[in-house]
UniProtKB/TrEMBL annotation:
Classification via InterPro entries: aa-tRNA-synth_II/BPL/LPL, DUF366
Source organism: Methanomethylovorans hollandica (strain DSM 15978 / NBRC 107637 / DMS1)
Protein known as: DUF366 domain-containing protein
Superkingdom of this protein's organism: Archaea
Any Pfam family matching the protein: DUF366
Length: 185
């Protein structure tokens, strides 16, 4: 698994959660996590969460940190939701190391009772995908700037989160290769 942080701004509109986006955007043909900064404007046609779609409210933020994760080892929806929760918990840990205390409810992070993040997970015929976005600045919801987060640290925190997730996945893979199945002596 590889990770990269795009230096150029890129706005998220929901199309980036499509299969093989990492290959088209960054020439990554393996499990990957791509982080970038940009606005978020998900219209109804790109909404995967049917509850959000039924409510008819677009998802919008002027400035977010985005993480697009793609795994090719399975198309199991339950597994990608477990990976999504793992990723969310890891983001909370990284923020706590930076002095920002959050609470987690499922795949959402909250800061001082305000929703800080958005996330969706899904599968296609070839891969599993996660989008996780976190507000840098927002007038209504929680955001990193309101927590005193320094602008110059945004790329560093994206790198820390992305590399930490890759390290965790590599560690899981390593553990799989050293554990014997039950009943085998």
């Amino acid at each position: 698994m590889k990770w990269i942080v795009l230096k150029k701004p890129l706005d998220y509109d929901g199309s980036q959660i499509s299969s093989l986006w990492g290959y088209m955007e960054a020439d990554l043909q393996e499990d990957s996590i791509i982080a970038f900064r940009g606005s978020c404007d998900v219209q109804l046609r790109h909404m995967i969460d049917l509850e959000d779609r039924k409510e008819g409210d677009p998802i919008y933020s002027t400035d977010m940190l985005h993480f697009i994760i793609e795994h090719f080892d399975s198309t199991d929806l339950k597994l990608i939701y477990a990976r999504q929760r793992l990723f969310t918990a890891m983001v909370a840990e990284v923020l706590l190391q930076r002095g920002i205390s959050t609470s987690r409810a499922g795949d959402d992070l909250f800061v001082q009772g305000k929703k800080l993040s958005i996330s969706i997970a899904s599968t296609s015929s070839v891969s599993q995908k996660i989008h996780f976005g976190m507000n840098v600045e927002h007038g209504i919801y929680g955001c990193l700037k309101d927590q005193g987060f320094d602008e110059k640290d945004l790329f560093t925190v994206m790198e820390k989160i992305a590399s930490r997730y890759v390290d965790e996945i590599h560690d899981i893979e390593k553990d799989l290769r050293k554990s014997r199945p039950l009943g085998v002596m």
